[in-house]
Amino acid sequence: MIRFFMFLILEYFSVQLSNMKIFTAAQIREADAFTIKNEPISSPQLMERAAGKCAAWIGEHYSQQHPIYIFCGKGNNGGDGLVIARMLQQQGYTVSVGIVQNSSKASPDHILQLQALQKHSPSSLYEIGYITDFPALPANAVIVDAIIGTGINKPIEGWVAGIIHQINDQHHKHPIIAIDMPSGLMADVSSRHAPVVQAHHTLSFEFYKLAFLLPENAAFPGQVHILPIGLHPEYITHTPARYHLSDKEMMRTIYQPRDPFAHKGTYGHALLIAGSYGKMGAAILSAKACLHAGVGLLSCHVPQSGYQIMQISEPCAMCITDEGTDYNTHFHSSIDASSYKTIGIGPGLGTQPVTARSMELLLEAFPRPMVIDADALNLLSVYPYLLYKIPAGSILTPHPKEFERLFGATTNDVERLELLSKQAVKLQIYILLKGRYTAIACPDGAVYFNNTGNPGMATGGSGDVLTGILTGLLAQDYAPKAAVLLGTWLHGFAGDLAAAHLSQEAMTASDIISYLGKAFQEGL
Ligand SMILES: NC(=O)C1=CN([C@@H]2O[C@H](COP(=O)(O)OP(=O)(O)OC[C@H]3O[C@@H](n4cnc5c(N)ncnc54)[C@H](OP(=O)(O)O)[C@@H]3O)[C@@H](O)[C@H]2O)[C@@H](O)CC1
Ligand SMILES: Nc1ncnc2c1ncn2[C@@H]1O[C@H](COP(=O)(O)OP(=O)(O)O)[C@@H](O)[C@H]1O
Ligand SMILES: [K+]
């Protein structure tokens, strides 16, 4: 009984703590101000609370044997650094605090905290006004970067950039812990080519920042630890966000357990159009993934040379052969819109012009959301007018190269996200841009980042598995948004389980399918 109540309490807090919205720097400032006004709490108290979380984290990870070198800017990020310094000194750490003169005026909270530290331990403080002021660090020093946080207003330049480079020169010698943001990183705009601290850990307050999720920023935040600081829940609940991070709690609300009275018709009949000579593996991976995602019935449309391969590899799938020997060229003729709940098309398909023609006829004949991947996407880039024939609510799953072929090049990742979202709205479809944090753009303009998966999945066939899972979920009557969020999450989670048991190196795309069952059991 006690365990049950403990479980309920933990569930309650995990739901409370799970915060999917990714706010902009401006919204974070509003959340800060709203909390100060409505909790109510004073600004210095909120800073004590936030910095206290960081000091506790540092205390848990580094002993008093480590001298702590904190670099503070003149704003509130620097104010946090000053509070952390005071708290760690009180716990017996040797702390050295360099005040980086990055602005002519200090924020009121910075001034307050500087006075408190001057009273407490003036000898630990020194000013940094030029590159040569950077201190020599003892062997086991830990660096804390509190120069600039979400208040950055332009890329860092001049000698302050020199300080950032000096911190980065220590990357292989000392742990670097960034407070809230690695200094120099801008939360919502591209920081490409700007000097940014390359942290090992970022202790960020309350929310993920968009910048942490962009591939172009991979070198900067290190491991991100989100520290809840009690920003007002009313602001968080009622303020709309464009970007979101998907999480387990969200998946649990999406997942539909199977009906005890179900029969195979209940969970839909999917058609998979995939495979060509030499690429039947892609079709088989998709077919297996679709079946393991719970589809009721699966038919695979394959070229003649793929018939035996498919039948022998996957007895649970039915098989339709194309007129083409090595390529699918006439799959539109096997489309009877009433027979299939959904269609998955693309893995290993090939890009023959005759395949494109069949795809055009298919798009004209089939009215419901489908999954479009791989070579089917490449066909869309060669014949872009086909984009306008895609049924509303369909799911496109490009990797970055396929995305560029489809919609053009961009100069940075923020621009690419804008383009992703714009195209999803324009075409009224879901576009899933694959990567470490796969970005899922919805027809209403919202973008969800997926947080599961690992570099073990950077191996041929992983994307084919995703296509199969998404097709399987659509067939089971999950709405497209539910299917795309749940399918992407399950795919990554199964990949994480595979990596945990087999290693990232040894796992293959087939292993993602093998762990899909465990992902349903342990994840949902
Ligand atoms: N959110 C929350 O709830 C809470 C937030 N808290 C903390 O507050 C932080 C935000 O503080 P903030 O708004 O004072 O801004 P911050 O990051 O210190 O930067 C401003 C300073 O940097 C300077 N500066 C800017 N750009 C520059 C450049 N390119 N190159 C050089 N300098 C540049 C700018 O100078 P200026 O340009 O104005 O002369 C100014 O001095 C946040 O990240 C978190 O740590 C917690 O304490 C409590 C709860
Ligand atoms: N480093 C990574 N972290 C998380 N997921 C990854 C990583 N690398 C690859 N993946 C996932 O693996 C899949 C690879 O898809 P794709 O590039 O289409 O592979 P393929 O064409 O070989 O099937 C995507 O879903 C992607 O999100
Ligand atoms: K910082």
UniProtKB/TrEMBL annotation:
<feature type="binding site">
    <location>
        <begin position="434"/>
        <end position="438"/>
    </location>
    <ligand>
        <name>AMP</name>
    </ligand>
</feature>
<protein>
    <recommendedName>
        <fullName>Bifunctional NAD(P)H-hydrate repair enzyme</fullName>
        <ecNumber>4.2.1.136</ecNumber>
        <ecNumber>5.1.99.6</ecNumber>
    </recommendedName>
</protein>
<keyword id="KW-0521">NADP</keyword>
<comment type="similarity">
    <text>Belongs to the NnrE/AIBP family.</text>
</comment>
<comment type="function">
    <text>Catalyzes the epimerization of the S- and R-forms of NAD(P)HX, a damaged form of NAD(P)H that is a result of enzymatic or heat-dependent hydration. This is a prerequisite for the S-specific NAD(P)H-hydrate dehydratase to allow the repair of both epimers of NAD(P)HX.</text>
</comment>
<dbReference type="GO" id="GO:0110051">
    <property type="term" value="P:metabolite repair"/>
</dbReference>
<feature type="binding site">
    <location>
        <position position="77"/>
    </location>
    <ligand>
        <name>K(+)</name>
    </ligand>
</feature>
<feature type="binding site">
    <location>
        <begin position="149"/>
        <end position="155"/>
    </location>
    <ligand>
        <name>(6S)-NADPHX</name>
    </ligand>
</feature>
<keyword id="KW-0067">ATP-binding</keyword>
<comment type="similarity">
    <text>In the C-terminal section; belongs to the NnrD/CARKD family.</text>
</comment>
<dbReference type="InterPro" id="IPR036652">
    <property type="entry name" value="YjeF_N_dom_sf"/>
</dbReference>
<keyword id="KW-0630">Potassium</keyword>
<dbReference type="InterPro" id="IPR004443">
    <property type="entry name" value="YjeF_N_dom"/>
</dbReference>
<keyword id="KW-0547">Nucleotide-binding</keyword>
<feature type="binding site">
    <location>
        <position position="464"/>
    </location>
    <ligand>
        <name>(6S)-NADPHX</name>
    </ligand>
</feature>
<feature type="binding site">
    <location>
        <position position="463"/>
    </location>
    <ligand>
        <name>AMP</name>
    </ligand>
</feature>
<dbReference type="Pfam" id="PF01256">
    <property type="entry name" value="Carb_kinase"/>
</dbReference>
<comment type="function">
    <text>Bifunctional enzyme that catalyzes the epimerization of the S- and R-forms of NAD(P)HX and the dehydration of the S-form of NAD(P)HX at the expense of ADP, which is converted to AMP. This allows the repair of both epimers of NAD(P)HX, a damaged form of NAD(P)H that is a result of enzymatic or heat-dependent hydration.</text>
</comment>
<feature type="binding site">
    <location>
        <position position="180"/>
    </location>
    <ligand>
        <name>(6S)-NADPHX</name>
    </ligand>
</feature>
<dbReference type="GO" id="GO:0046496">
    <property type="term" value="P:nicotinamide nucleotide metabolic process"/>
</dbReference>
<dbReference type="Pfam" id="PF03853">
    <property type="entry name" value="YjeF_N"/>
</dbReference>
<comment type="subunit">
    <text>Homotetramer.</text>
</comment>
<dbReference type="GO" id="GO:0052855">
    <property type="term" value="F:ADP-dependent NAD(P)H-hydrate dehydratase activity"/>
</dbReference>
<keyword id="KW-0456">Lyase</keyword>
<feature type="domain" description="YjeF C-terminal">
    <location>
        <begin position="247"/>
        <end position="523"/>
    </location>
</feature>
<keyword id="KW-0413">Isomerase</keyword>
<keyword id="KW-0479">Metal-binding</keyword>
<feature type="binding site">
    <location>
        <position position="183"/>
    </location>
    <ligand>
        <name>K(+)</name>
    </ligand>
</feature>
<dbReference type="InterPro" id="IPR030677">
    <property type="entry name" value="Nnr"/>
</dbReference>
<feature type="binding site">
    <location>
        <position position="399"/>
    </location>
    <ligand>
        <name>(6S)-NADPHX</name>
    </ligand>
</feature>
<feature type="binding site">
    <location>
        <position position="348"/>
    </location>
    <ligand>
        <name>(6S)-NADPHX</name>
    </ligand>
</feature>
<dbReference type="InterPro" id="IPR000631">
    <property type="entry name" value="CARKD"/>
</dbReference>
<dbReference type="GO" id="GO:0046872">
    <property type="term" value="F:metal ion binding"/>
</dbReference>
<dbReference type="GO" id="GO:0005524">
    <property type="term" value="F:ATP binding"/>
</dbReference>
<keyword id="KW-0520">NAD</keyword>
<feature type="binding site">
    <location>
        <position position="282"/>
    </location>
    <ligand>
        <name>(6S)-NADPHX</name>
    </ligand>
</feature>
<dbReference type="InterPro" id="IPR017953">
    <property type="entry name" value="Carbohydrate_kinase_pred_CS"/>
</dbReference>
<keyword id="KW-0511">Multifunctional enzyme</keyword>
<dbReference type="InterPro" id="IPR029056">
    <property type="entry name" value="Ribokinase-like"/>
</dbReference>
<feature type="domain" description="YjeF N-terminal">
    <location>
        <begin position="28"/>
        <end position="237"/>
    </location>
</feature>
<dbReference type="GO" id="GO:0052856">
    <property type="term" value="F:NAD(P)HX epimerase activity"/>
</dbReference>
<feature type="binding site">
    <location>
        <begin position="76"/>
        <end position="80"/>
    </location>
    <ligand>
        <name>(6S)-NADPHX</name>
    </ligand>
</feature>
